[in-house]
Design goal:
Elements (H helix, E strand, L loop, with lengths): L9 H4 L1 H24 L16 E9 L2 E4 L2 E12 L5 E2 L8 E8 L6 E6 L2 H5 L11 H4 L9
């Protein structure tokens, strides 16, 4: 009987390929394990650093760019940046109808809201100057009189 080897896959039947299979499987297993652990443990979100001039308040977006800040009408500046709790930029339309705790800064020339950060519970628990100060303190400094010593 005449048999030919042309239809047989010699690579799968050769003794040399079977000795490499465990090593190849171990290499793939190590690669997958490394990829799974490469991210490391999930870290807790750190508290963000805000500019010293940032104030604290409650923001309600009504109809962008119109907002209410601590219950008073205000306006977002053209190009205002709003960052969510993950520090990602969001549009003001995404916050319509939601009242959120925020830190914010104003434009120095127009007084409009320039940068807004939606706060996490941990960030909101930290004390910061806020709505107990009038809005014009941003422009004219503290209203308390300084007595000379």
């Amino acid at each position: 009987m005449d048999t030919t080897n042309r239809c047989m896959n010699t690579a799968t039947h050769s003794p040399s390929s079977s000795r490499w299979r465990p090593a190849l499987a171990a290499a793939w297993l190590c690669a997958w394990a490394w990829l799974a652990l490469a991210g490391g443990p999930v870290q807790a979100q750190e508290i963000r650093n805000f500019p010293p001039a940032a104030m604290r308040g409650r923001l309600l977006v009504t109809t962008p760019p119109q907002v209410q800040l601590d219950g008073k009408a205000d306006v977002l500046a053209p190009g205002a940046r709003i960052r969510n709790t993950q520090n990602m930029l969001v549009t003001s339309a995404a916050l319509v109808g939601q009242e959120v705790r925020v830190n914010y800064t104003r434009e120095t020339t127009t007084g409009m809201l320039q940068e807004v950060w939606v706060l996490t519970d941990a960030e909101a628990a930290l004390r910061r100057p806020g709505s107990e100060r009038p809005w014009y303190n941003f422009f004219f400094g503290d209203t308390e009189e300084v007595t000379p010593k």
